[in-house]
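Researcher: Here's a chain I'd like modeled. Treat it as a single chain, no partners, no ligands.
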Amino acid sequence: MAVYELKYEQKIPSTLDKVWDYFSSPMNLKEITPAYMNFLVTSSAFRDKMYQGMMITYKVSPLLGIRLDWCTEITQVRHLNYFVDEQREGPYTIWHHQHHFEEIEGGVLMTDIIHYKIPFGMLGKIANSLFVKKQLRGIFQYRIKKVEELFGQMK
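Model: Modeled as a single isolated chain. Structure tokens:
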């Protein structure tokens, strides 16, 4: 069973409260996702801030413009510290995304740890090698740039 891991860290020159407020609102996800993904939150009734047990539905186009439904559940929340989203329906066999926030001198250290598995056995491994891992890296690199635009760069 091939479960892949990605890890990203970003230092953000802002307060923990402001960073948490931004990232704990599902409506901000579109702003930090590349336009080619055609990302759309389709959940109709939820609060501005996430909570444990929250289900969030989306439409995404990760490959060749093909529209997919994606549903994640916020499985853990520790206010101002971390939250975890897990896929309940979507393109992955496993999607487990930890979002950690730590106050540091001059701002916040944000750490993302993603574990994912692709379906289709050996074909999934090949797909990961050829394009899935690269695409995920691209999405997170885009997000890093957008966060810098929104909050500034740590010096």
